[in-house]
């Protein structure tokens, strides 16, 4: 009961955002974001040449 | 338990681990490769020694190249909703440098409440500008318009804040200038170098005069994570009977959070970086981390 009382709207929102983040992480891994970021970094570095 | 020695050890370890690629340039010739995961701290995307690009840099670069920054948004949501701005206090190398600057001079102080409240809005304005410019450039590129304007923007067209962020200057540009013997010091970038000089001055002089000057007032990434720190699962609890409302915690707070004006049950302030200096300073042990 005490545990239930401590669950408030902010915690539910934070948990919902966490779930959304995990879904997006899964999607980004499926899309190959790490490779995409890697290619951008390699193209971008060094910027002052 | 005192948190400060523990935090300093984690800050030092993070500083070294995040810049571990520097070993590739030593006579040992280690072969470390980057992770390319956006981490919500200030580490430069243009740095050859940093292990992973910072979240803010990835956001800017992907947006301005007409891509949806899925991994950066995922990292923002996951870290923001759980830890809030705790990584600013415990992991960020730029935060560590400022803490060192404050500790070395021993003169870092507080600013007036009005100045502090107004100054803290600057980081949100900077964040809006940076994201706005990156988004507009990305849209223009996607529709093939304004090509000459984008070309005229030069280095800032791939991330408007990247050339001015202290992480890219300290861990990207300065090591490169040292390694290449001043080769990148082109005359084309004189104005840019002048602005970068001002940024470094603000970082070191500001950090030595006011605790966490950059994080409080100028860090756009801090502004982004502050939006989540308000609702993050982790927070601080001030014991209602142990706390005698002496101002020790507020005096010790390096971000000047008005702790006593916040609810005792759970403190989730957008400027709280969970450094736990307040818990160390409390003579009654009334402040503890909570979920």
What does this 3D model show about the protein?
The complex is a heterodimer of chains A (49) and B (291). Chain A is mainly α. Chain A has a domain at 23-49. Chain A has helices at residues 2-6, 9-31, 33-44. The longest helix of chain A has 23 residues, at 9-31. The radius of gyration of chain A is 19 Å and the shape is elongated. In chain A, 22% of the residues are buried. In chain B, α3 crosses α12. Chain B has 291 residues and is mainly alpha-helical. Chain B starts with a helix and ends with a strand. Chain B contains 14 helices and 2 strands; from the N terminus they run ααααααααααααβααβ. Classes of the chains: A mainly alpha (49), B mainly alpha (291). Chain A binds chain B through residues 10-11, 13-15, 17-18, 20-22, 24-25, 27-28, 31, 33-38, 40-41, 44-49, and chain B through 34, 36-38, 45-48, 53, 58, 61-62, 65, 67, 70-71, 73-78, 80-82, 155, 158-159, 162-163, 168, 172-173, 176, 184, 186, 189, 228, 231-233, 268.
Strand content of chain B: under 5%
Indicate the low-confidence ranges of chain A by residue numbers: none
* Total helical elements of chain A: 3
The coarse overall form of chain B would be globular
Distance between the termini of chain B: 19 Å
Low-pLDDT ranges of chain B: none
Radius of gyration of chain B: 20 Å
Element pattern of chain B in H and E = HHHHHHHHHHHHEHHE
Quick one: biggest sheet of chain B? 2 strands, antiparallel
The coarse overall form of chain A would be elongated
Rounded average pLDDT of chain B: 84
Strand elements of chain A, count? 0
Total strands of chain B: the figure is: 2
Using only C-alpha atoms, the radius of gyration of chain A works out to: 19 Å
Q: Share of helix among residues of chain B? A: 40-55%
Structure annotation, total helices of chain B: 14
What is the mean predicted local confidence, pLDDT of chain A?
A: 75
- Quaternary assembly: heterodimer
């Amino acid at each position: 009961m005490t545990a239930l009382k401590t669950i408030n709207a902010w915690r539910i929102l934070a948990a919902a955002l966490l779930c959304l983040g995990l879904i997006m992480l899964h999607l980004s891994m499926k899309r190959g974001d790490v490779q995409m970021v890697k290619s951008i970094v390699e193209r971008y570095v060094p910027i002052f040449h | 338990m005192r948190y400060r020695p523990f935090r300093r050890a984690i800050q030092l370890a993070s500083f070294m681990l995040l810049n571990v690629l520097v070993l590739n340039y030593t006579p040992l010739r280690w072969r470390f490769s980057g992770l390319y995961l956006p981490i919500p701290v200030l580490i430069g995307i243009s740095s050859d020694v940093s292990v992973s690009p910072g979240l803010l840099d990835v956001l800017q670069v992907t947006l301005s190249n007409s891509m949806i920054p899925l991994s950066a948004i995922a990292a923002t949501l996951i870290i923001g909703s759980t830890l809030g701005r705790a990584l600013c206090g415990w992991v960020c190398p730029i935060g560590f440098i400022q803490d060192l600057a404050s500790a070395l001079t021993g003169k870092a102080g507080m600013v007036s409440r009005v100045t502090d409240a107004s100054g803290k809005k600057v980081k949100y304005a900077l964040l809006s500008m940076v994201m706005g410019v990156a988004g507009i450039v990305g849209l223009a590129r996607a529709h093939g318009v304004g090509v000459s304007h984008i070309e005229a923007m030069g280095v800032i067209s791939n991330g408007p804040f990247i050339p001015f962020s202290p992480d890219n200057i300290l861990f990207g540009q300065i090591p490169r200038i040292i390694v290449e013997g001043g080769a990148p010091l082109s005359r084309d970038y004189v104005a840019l170098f002048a602005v970068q000089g001002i940024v470094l001055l603000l970082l070191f002089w500001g950090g030595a005069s006011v605790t966490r000057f950059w994080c409080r007032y100028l860090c756009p990434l801090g502004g982004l994570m502050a939006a989540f720190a308000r609702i993050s699962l982790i927070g601080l609890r001030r014991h209602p009977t142990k706390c005698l409302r002496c101002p020790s915690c507020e005096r010790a707070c390096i971000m000047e959070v008005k702790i006593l004006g916040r609810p005792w049950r759970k403190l989730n302030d957008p400027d709280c970086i969970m450094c736990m200096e307040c818990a160390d300073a409390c003579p009654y042990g009334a402040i503890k981390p909570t979920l």
